[in-house]
Amino acid sequence: MLTRRKTLELALPVIAAQAATATTGVVDTAIMGRFGDKAALAAVAIAAVAYSFIYWGFGFLRMSTTGLAAQAGGRGDEAEKRAVLLRALLLGGAIGLALLILAPILKPLAFAAFAGTEHVEALAGGYFDARIWGAPAYLMGLAVSGWMLGTGRTGQMLAFQIVMNTVNAGLDTWFVAALGWGPAGIGAGTAIAEWVALAFGLILVRGAFGTHGTLFDRTRLTALFTANRDIMIRTLALVLCFGWFVRSSTLISTAATAGNEVLMQFITVAAFVLDGFAFVAEKEAGEAYGARDASALARAMRLTTEFALGAAIVISLIYFLGGGWVIATFVRDTEARDAALAYLPFCAIVPLIGIAPWQLDGLFLGTTQGRALR
């Protein structure tokens, strides 16, 4: 039975892993803010959102893997639990290779919605060209982290993310501060870090590999693709919202785009921290759903929501009281800094507003209720 103590034991590594995930963008922004100018910072913002359009649409590789693995665990079906990972890895690798091949077509399409200056778009293009080489690793990594979460291996999930972030931060600093590669250096550092993390993650989950007679079972594959389709539609809708914010900023000014990118990192950090409890809800709800235990499902949602509310209050207070100092410390360009400070209060209330959506996200993903999400 899920208890408050067990909730924290599961959630804390997930929160740390999610916060570490968020710091990838924070580190990129901080490095560009310190060693670049507003054009370089805006370029990273545009390129990052472009990758969000491409990558977030395939976030189902993490989400459906978590739900399906948790449900298999709830049923006590160990063979199917392992097969879930292998299916997701094969699918992620295939999609990643397709993205590499289609990169010349995807690049202009990804940037078409943004109205940045020619200089900013050229810098963003350098980031795009470098980072695309990490596509297969990133997508397969989603499958690995999703399976770790669905099977309750939250400590391994944290280790996986720490490796990625450590390599990313080190390479980004070297490529940008020492070699002067600018946004292209950020993209290259991220791509290499994704491959290193994938290799580490595969070592951690190597026990799931082997012969699986149900790997290509038609019923299982149908369930996978049905869940993936609905989750993909849901995720693309979210990406469109974020893309709208960035596009609106580019129509105002480069400074507004840079300031918006800084605030988006605040929101991303908050989302990933609160997602820690939603992810526990996702895992526990999936197991309860697989075991057909309604009381366990209700308990999981209640306990995780209690902790999410407390965390949201703390995060909002931190943003209200210390957000200005963070912005002033990491953003050198005065116009970008002023743009971020002007809208910081609105950013600070986002954690409180987002509790219900994040928790419901966990419930529907864990039980693979794709239609409700869509």
Walkthrough of the structure:
- This protein is mainly α and 374 residues long.
- The chain has 16 helices and no strands.
- The radius of gyration is 20 Å and the shape is globular.
* Overall mean confidence score, pLDDT: 84
Point out poorly predicted stretches: none
Q: Briefly note the structural class of the backbone.
A: mainly alpha
Helical fraction equals over 70%
- Gyration radius (Cα, Å) is 20 Å
The strand count comes to 0
Biggest beta sheet summary: none
Distance between the termini: 31 Å
**Total tally of structural domains:** 1
Q: What is the molecular shape?
A: globular
- The number of helical runs is 16
Instruction: Work out the strand percent.
Output: under 5%
Q: Could you give the order of the helices and strands?
A: HHHHHHHHHHHHHHHH
Outline the secondary-structure elements:
Layout: H1 4-35, H2 38-55, H3 60-75, H4 78-111, H5 118-131, H6 135-150, H7 154-178, H8 183-204, H9 218-252, H10 254-291, H11 294-330, H12 334-342, H13 344-348, H14 350-353, H15 355-366, H16 370-373
